[in-house]
Design a protein that fits this description.
This protein is an alpha/beta fold. The protein is built from 18 helices and twelve strands. It starts with a helix and ends with a strand.
């Protein structure tokens, strides 16, 4: 039996602060809600993706979605959580970023009904005096000054805050008011860090329209090992855009999550049912070394963000490089994906000595060291241990015109084979 929405949100860890006195109100009549992302970059991160997954559950349970791209708010930048003023983006940057976010909405919410809006469309015509009369007169200064980030920026050790960033919550609050008037939106979904901005909209709707509106926030996903916001890697944020975080690195990020967090992340970032997750969890705890939970998480999230074909490709690559996969199963597309990640060198079949290839690929620092690796059986060609009888590549090593050479467990390179 399917869970109700309130039960689903609790089970998956999407419950945090809310204005609802009884969360079961979510299980009643469908409502129109909105959720938005500012175009501070041309891609969402996996932090945004967590909230997007929550949005999918609201849609699945019959609620109507409005997805906002913050063209207007993006011109200022949300100051919450920031120690210093943001650098303003150019209008061209904002336009490009909006296009990137909108495209990702289409992918992440593919197959679901939603409407995309841009708050610049209604702010570009607003008269400043009208805004002050309608919005400014209905927002107590004490409410704005009480925000924690404002207090920290204005405190003795703070860097100060501009009038523009101080006014950010007014802009977001007006978004909720406008969407309430235009579409009947009565609920805003957000992450925990947007609670204050979202409440501003609830208050405006109550004061100006005399209507009830609500906020539902999800807790931020925290990396249990580091204690920082989830979604960071050694290279920085993990992006949904393959040009910022390659599909291979995206898959590897999920594959490397710790045992303590993996089931919780599966609940957040996949659409597997409770029964499927329970079964997976039991199998995982019976043999953690097999890393079934991590492999399932990596595949499911990569399918959602990058499509099944790319997900299957990076899964084959990963199993070939680090597991028991057969290199011969790799397609030309797989090899091209690998070449974006690994060093690539050229070798002439039957001519270029293997030890030279090893040095060119950066797997050894000298010809002497390369020969020692070969003698010590530390070199693998297409997943098979090097045969001491072999001095150069032959035609049997050819996989779509390439070979994969590996030293030890984790250091690999792609070899373009020529005749």
């Amino acid at each position: 039996m399917d869970m109700t929405l309130s039960e689903e949100l609790a089970y998956r860890g999407f419950s945090n602060q809310t204005t609802y006195k009884d969360v079961k109100e979510l299980d009643n009549e469908p409502v129109t809600f909105y959720w938005g992302v500012d175009p501070s970059a041309d891609s969402m991160t996996i932090g945004n993706l967590a909230a997007a997954m929550m949005v999918r559950h609201f849609i699945y349970h019959g609620h109507k979605a409005i997805l906002l791209v913050g063209g207007a708010t993006g011109m200022i930048g949300d100051p919450d959580g920031k120690d210093t003023e943001r650098d303003l983006l150019t209008l061209d940057q904002i336009t490009a970023n909006k296009a990137g976010i909108s495209e990702q909405y289409s992918r992440v919410f593919s197959g679901h009904s939603f409407e995309t809006v841009d708050n610049y469309d209604w702010f570009k015509e607003i008269n400043y005096l009208d805004f002050l009369r309608e919005v400014g007169k209905n927002v107590p200064l004490s409410q704005m000054l009480g925000r924690e980030f404002v207090q920290s920026r204005l405190g003795e050790d703070g860097t100060g805050i501009s009038y523009a960033e101080f006014s950010y919550s007014l802009i977001q609050g007006y978004d909720f008011l406008h969407l309430n008037r235009r579409y009947g939106a009565s609920l805003q979904l957000c992450g925990a860090d947007q609670w204050g901005n979202s409440i501003a909209g609830v208050e405006l709707i109550r004061r100006i329209e005399g209507k009830e509106a609500h906020v539902w926030s999800a807790p931020l996903v925290i990396n249990k090992q580091t204690g920082v916001k989830f979604g960071k890697s050694e290279d920085g944020a993990v992006w949904l855009d393959a040009n910022k975080t390659s599909v291979y690195k995206f898959y590897q990020f999920w594959l490397n999550v710790d045992d303590e967090s993996v089931i919780e992340l599966i609940k957040i970032y996949t659409l597997l049912t409770k029964n499927q997750i329970d079964e997976l969890e039991a199998t995982f705890h019976g043999d953690k070394a097999a890393r079934l939970a991590q492999r399932t998480l990596a595949f499911e999230v990569t399918v959602l963000v990058h499509g099944r074909k790319r997900a299957e490709s990076v899964m084959r690559i990963s199993e070939t490089l680090f597991g028991d996969g057969d290199c011969k199963s790799l397609t030309n597309e797989d090899i091209q994906e690998l070449k974006r990640e690994l060093p690539t060198v050229i070798a002439k079949v039957g001519v270029t000595p293997l030890y030279e290839v090893i040095v060119m690929a950066g797997l050894a620092s000298s010809n002497g060291e390369a020969r020692r690796f070969l003698t010590d059986n530390a070199i693998y060609i297409n997943g098979l241990q090097f045969s001491s009888e072999k001095a150069a590549f032959d035609n049997q090593d050819n996989i779509a015109g390439h070979a994969i050479i590996r030293r030890g467990k984790n250091t690999s390179a792609v070899v373009d084979l020529t005749n």
